[in-house]
Design a protein that fits this description.
mainly alpha, globular, 20 helices, 0% strand, 419 residues
């Protein structure tokens, strides 16, 4: 890391703080600002921010950011509401996600001839998880039905962890393909361990942290500052225990947030301010370094095949599986289009591709890195620009129409007109 890297990061943070409130009320998102500034101060323009792509700092920063944001997103989920709204994320995770990976793999085989089958599957898996934070109004604007907001939030929280074991399997097969074997790979064991152990660690950590808040907090034993620190320690505990056991730390962090809020729903939201602030800070730094270290080199080698795949990844490869997964729900085309479009690619894809670059010996890793970086950058721009107007238009449409599949959680107003 260069001597001017940290001062530059601090200067950018201070500068953005001065306009942060105005930026939050505009279509210019935090990720857009920090990615663009990172590109300017990074290794292809001013070259004052120096971080190795293959080093551990950027990867660990992105992992910590994702874990914190998964926890705080999950802590905002109302468990009682979720029980009635589980059908939407279940369809998106159980049907849409595997179809997205399959369609992404097939598309990569056609458009990117330098990738073999399993490397194409690696690319598709890295780009399958969604990042709700890049379209924040979609999961926070109360004009939208809570079942839609919670569904997209749960999908974003769990598909990261579900994709981890799939990524491990595909990378292992791709690396072993030249040798003619898979080295005793056991896919079902990997899947069950990553998901099961991750969820178990999350439940234990969330119940423990929420229990401290409930039992000790109600007795006045917990200082206000330590309520906040407790909520930062819980996702750290969940992630590290899950990783130590061989499970998915991302599933652990998300499940911990749900368990934490379920144990102490009255105090959970007010105790996560520090965790949310820390997650927002780390998110800003991650996207700044994304622009500084990854985006410049990717743009230098950008070709039409990479750009076309990135566009398809954000549209057809996402939207068609969503439409197929929602067959039989009775949802109207406008709602399906809304759900299909707002599947941004962000932190999880960055984490996964950094893991690939750092820990694998895959021949096509450099090509995968370029495609992922371009896709994430395009998502930051397009989903950021469309989130506010998209939410406004859909909210107006929803207010004038019935969508029974979504209206189970938020009852339809008697004044709402039927189409």
């Amino acid at each position: 890391m260069g001597e001017w890297t940290l001062p530059t990061l601090a200067i950018v943070l201070v500068a953005y703080a001065g306009v942060s409130r105005r930026a939050q009320s505009s279509w210019i998102t935090q990720a857009m600002v920090f990615s663009a500034v990172g590109l300017v101060v990074g290794n292809r323009v001013l070259d004052v921010v120096e971080v190795e792509v293959s080093g551990r700092f950027l990867r660990h920063l992105a992992e910590a950011t994702l874990a914190l944001m998964l926890f705080t997103d999950a802590a905002r989920i109302n468990p009682a509401t979720l029980r009635h709204a589980v059908r939407l994320p279940a369809r998106l995770l159980g049907l849409e996600l595997p179809v997205t990976i399959a369609l992404g793999t097939a598309t990569a085989m056609v458009l990117l001839p330098d990738l073999d089958l399993w490397t194409a599957a690696v690319l598709a898996t890295i780009l399958a998880p969604t990042d709700a934070a890049l379209g924040q109004p979609v999961v926070t604007d109360e004009r939208l039905p809570s079942s839609l907001r919670q569904g997209l939030n749960v999908e974003s929280g769990l598909n990261d962890g579900i994709c981890v074991p799939l990524l491990i399997i595909f990378v292992t097969i791709a690396e072993a393909s030249d040798g003619g074997g898979t080295g005793g790979l056991h896919p079902f064991r990997i899947l069950s361990e990553e998901i099961g152990l991750g969820a178990a660690a999350g439940i234990v950590a969330g119940v423990a942290g929420g229990g401290v808040l409930r039992v000790c907090g109600r007795r006045g034993w917990v200082a206000p500052s330590w309520r906040q620190i407790n909520a930062v320690a819980v996702p750290l505990l969940a992630y590290t225990v899950a990783a130590a056991l061989g499970g998915s730390g991302f599933i652990g962090a998300f499940v911990a947030g749900i368990a934490y809020a379920a144990v102490e729903p009255q105090r959970a939201a007010e105790s996560t301010s520090l965790a949310e602030g820390a997650g927002e800070l780390l998110d800003a730094l991650t996207f700044l370094l994304f622009g500084a270290v990854l985006l410049g080199p990717a743009l230098e080698v950008l070709d039409w095949r990479t750009l076309v795949y990135a566009v398809l990844s954000l549209t057809v490869i996402r939207m068609v599986p969503v439409a197929l997964a929602l067959i039989g729900t009775g949802l109207r085309p406008v709602t399906i289009l809304f759900l299909g479009w707002f599947g941004p690619r962000g932190l999880a894809s960055i984490v996964f591709v950094l893991l690939l670059v750092e820990e694998s010996e895959l021949d096509g890793a450099a090509s995968v890195l370029t495609v992922v970086v371009v896709t994430v950058a395009l998502s930051v721009l397009l989903h950021g620009v469309t989130s506010w107007p998209g939410v406004g238009r859909y909210a107006s449409w929803y207010d004038a129409h019935d969508e029974p599949y979504l209206a189970e959680v938020v009852p339809v107003s008697p004044s709402r007109r039927r189409a």
